[in-house]
Each structure stands twice: as structure tokens, then as C-alpha cells.
């Protein structure tokens, strides 16, 4: 895939799916839901304070009769109700509304009512970047702060499994660091990258070609890799970038959007159903395309 529009086209073919929105009091989210409904991608189930939801739908020029609305004032309980809908097969994916991230994740991970699978949760962003020849996936820029080696392996596996749903078979996963040389004493994350490469070769990470460490430049630019004489069949050809920690991942994420004019969609993985968790600062387009990405992931 080269564009996010291809993801939207795929979502149209799969949908409409049922999306449950926790604490659905965010106007931008409701506008994205409206657009996705008009594209026949989703049907919406809105959970939150009913009167306020109806007022916001009016502002969004949406008919409240087009949605199932479940009245619940408490944001944690609203999130739990959405998880119940997933577990009871009454919804296919989950989206964060105005609820804070902490209670939202708490509901997802609740052992009784949550939608966790026992796997590590991880965040995956999909970028359409001008002049890059295909979609670029980045993980994890939003959830895991300082993942250890085994957590990084699970983050990669989550991303690889999702990449197959996008039609990307045997994706090239490049583990990025500040440098492309292994430096055990000063840069232990370069050792993690090398270990992950070996783990993939021995089948501990399935379905992908994993290599590292790479600098960001030689992970996405074959010319840069040639100049630095990096000997790897995947150098400069990344499908998926694994960030060494949340700080690096988050900075790459925001740099691509703010300086590279990249378009983005993102989901949370490791759950029974895809979770759309967007920031209030994310654009309408990001929210809308994230819904489409979640629909593709729900098939």
C-alpha cells in the first residue's frame, strides 16, 4: 500500500462495522464518526451522558436517531460498557472519546470486564509520507515507555500481525537507534536491536524480516545506507520502524506530522478488538482514518 486512501477503500469493502465510543462527548470524534458512517465504514454506538451527546450531534449536523446512544455519566463506567459490548459481540471495535487515557486503559485491562488478551498493549501508527514509496508503520510512540527486550519482541509481533491485515506480507522491521553500530556499554538499546534480529531468525518473532540497529536515515534511505556501507538486504527499505522507547517514537511521530506533512492513522493492538485512541491534538483526518484503520483490523 502507498496511500491511506487504500486503507479507506479496504474498510469500505469490509464495513460497516460497529464502533463503540467511550464517553462520546468530543465534537471532533463525533464528526469523524459521522464521516465514517457516511462512507458506510461504521455504525456508531455512543456511550456517555445522553443529553450532551445529542447536543453535540446537533452541532455536528448529525441525526441522533442514526446512532445507538447508551446513557452513562461516569467516564470509567462508559469505558467498561464499551468493553462489555465488545465481549458480547455487540461491537467490533472501540474508540476513545473525551474519557481520560488512564481510565480508558484501566477499563480495557480490567480482568473481569476488559478486552485484554494477555498480550502487551502497543500503539501502531501508519503514515503516508510524501516521497516515501509506501506506507510506513511506526511502533510504539504512545503506550510503552521503556520496553525491555521481550516487550519489544511482543510490540514487533503485534505490528507484524496487523501488517498482514493490510496486505503487507513478510514486512521488513527495522529497529532504529541513534547509531547503526552495536555499542553495549554506552548504548544498550543497540544490543536490544541486534538481539531482536537474531530472535526473528530463530523464529521467536514470526512472519517478518527484523534487523538492527539502524539510524533513522539508513532505515528509510537506501542511499544513506550505501554511503555508510551498511550490509543488510533491508537497509533503507523499512515497512515498520521499531522505536527504542516512547520518547524517540513520539518525536518521530510528531516530526513526521509537523514537518514532513505526513498523513496518519493509528490503533492500539494486543486487545480482542482494535482500539482507536487518538489525541485531542490529532486532526479530524487522523481521527477519521484511524477509524478506517480499526475497521480493517477488525476483520
Overview of this protein structure:
The chain is α/β, with parallel strands linked by helices. It contains eleven helices and eleven strands. It has helices spanning 4-14, 27-38, 50-59, 75-87, 101-109, 149-165, 188-201, 216-220, 222-227, 246-259, 284-297; strands spanning 17-22, 42-48, 68-71, 93-96, 122-128, 136-139, 172-176, 209-214, 240-242, 263-269, 275-276. Strand 2, helix 3 (50-59) and strand 3 (68-71) form a beta-alpha-beta unit. The chain is 42% helix and 18% strand. It has two domains: 4-117 and 271-297, Rossmann fold; 122-259, Isopropylmalate Dehydrogenase.
Radius of gyration: 19 Å
Helical fraction equals 40-55%
Output the CATH topology of the largest domain.
Rossmann fold
Strand content: 15-25%
How much is the average pLDDT? 95
Main pleated sheet? 6 strands, mixed
- For the secondary structure, the number of strands is 11
Overall spatial form: elongated
Structural class, judged by helices and strands?
alpha/beta
CATH-scheme architecture of the largest domain: 3-Layer(aba) Sandwich
Low-confidence stretches: none
Read across the widest sheet, the strand sequence of neighbours is: 8-7-9-6-5-10
What is the CATH first-level class name of the largest domain? Alpha Beta
Following the backbone from N to C, one meets helices and strands in this order, namely HEHEHEHEHEEHEHEHHEHEEH
Distinct helical segment count: 11
Number of domains in the coordinates? 2
**Distance N terminus to C terminus?**
18 Å
